[in-house]
Every structure is written in structure tokens, then in C-alpha cells.
Amino acid sequence: EQLGHEVRGGNWGFSDVGQVEWAYVPMAEILDRAKVKADAKNLLFWSGVDGPDTGRPMPMSEIFSRLEEIGLAFGMNGVDLPPDHGGPVRAVVPGWGGAASVKWLTEIIISSTKGFWTRMHTKEEAYIGPDYPPEKPGPDDEFRGVTAQDIRGQMGTWLKVKSHLTIPYTMKKSEPPEGYPLKQGDVYTMPAGKHMMLGYAYSPNGIQKVEYSLDGGKTWTEAPIKDPLGLKYRWVRFEFPWEATRGTHILATRATDKQGEVQPDAVPFNELGINCNAVPKFEVNVTS
User: Fold this and answer.
1) Residues 227 and 117 in one domain
2) 74 near 92, Cβ under 8 Å?
3) What is the pLDDT of residue 231?
4) What is the pTM assigned to this prediction?
């Protein structure tokens, strides 16, 4: 459920996000050893063990622009890359949606003539809707597990600036995913009094500021940002005090990244629901 629309989503429920320290070999080293030609156009990260059709293509222009950032990870948080996180080797593509960082990597294919089409960027991490004209495959393109008829929109790439509070969102139209703390239609409840509200914000470009609203987005106040790391691609925490009074309130948050991109009030409909970064509004019932 997003902005009043039913969306399909994926097997992660609302979404998933992580922040880790990788040990990895940058693509600069990989491409140098492979002696890749200068006219290379497309790359495919492929897993031959994560089902029959798991892979993700990328334009080589994107690889060339971040040769030291994109790479192959073999370690995570000071230990060998765990199997659950794609060990022994996985791709790492900071700033893009998670499907680009293919786990259990077994193959890398680079082509100067053809593109690649897979389930991961046509049926899962894609934008499908009236505002997203379908991409067109080339005559020599390779299809793995999909056909040209499966290309109904545009590939998801860079993540967008987002923010949210650490309280559950009310699901009015959809059945919440398993383990969610609220049932369909339930509103988060908290006692009246002074509370410190916590939240997170993220953008591949870094966060410039976060604002919060206590009246459903009519007025905004800047929130202090807690950023102990100061690292590229990291998320930040923010907090603000709230003297909650009895009744129903609509709290909202809005982030601005370091390139000036601001969370919008609404986004075009995407039937898959991915990368929705509209201003989140949290309904809260305050009791005495």
C-alpha cells in the first residue's frame, strides 16, 4: 500500500536496508586484469547458484565512473563474507537498489555489442506504470529467464532521498506483512507527555537536512542530525522532542540531500512500489 494505491512489492515486506563495512576488490583491479576493451558497453553480474535466473546488468559507463567504489566483496564487518549475505563473493554497488549487488556471484559477462535482460530488473527492481515508458531491447540482446514481453517499464538504479520515523505506519487498505506490529487499520498508540522521536534518513548523495511536521505537513521544523560516521553512502539518524497531547496526530518527515533533492509529497504510481520516497505520514493516537 502506497499513497492510496495497492502495490505488489517484494518478499522484503516494506523494505530492507543495511549499513556495513565491506572488504572488497574494486572493479578497477578486476577490469585491469581482464584487459577489458575500451568499447565495452554492458556488464552482467550473474549468480549460477541463487536459482536459475538471478543476475543484474549494468551499463559499463556506470562501472567506469566508479571503478574504486563498485567491486566484489569477500568480507563483511571484519569477517569472511557470511553465506547468508552472499559469501564467498558478491557484487557491491553502493547507492543502487540491493538487486544490483548480486549475491553468490559465479560469473561476470561484459559485452561490447549486446545488452542483458533478467528477472531482477524487469519484474522486481523496476518502475512500471503510466509515467515509465518501457525500455526497448536491442536486436542482439540476451534474455535470461525473461522475454521481451516482460519489459513493461524501466530499470531501477539509484536510490532516492528518504526519511522515516521508528514507529509503525498504519496500513489501512493492505494486509501488513508477517511480524508487523500493527494489524490492518490499527493506529500506533502512545501515552501523552514528552517523547524523543527518532528516525533515519538516507540518500546516495548524503543528507543535508531533515525536517519534521507535527500537523500533517502544514508546517515544518528542522531536526538535529546525528551523524557519527561522516562516510559516503551512510544513513544518518535524527531526533526531535514532542510534547504529545491527547488525540490523533499526523507526524511527517522530509529529507533534503546534498544535491538539493527534496522528498516530494507524491511520486508517480509504480505497481511494484519500489523506491517510493514520498513524504511519509505517520498517524499516532495519543492517550491520556
Assistant:
1) no
2) no
3) 82
4) 0.90
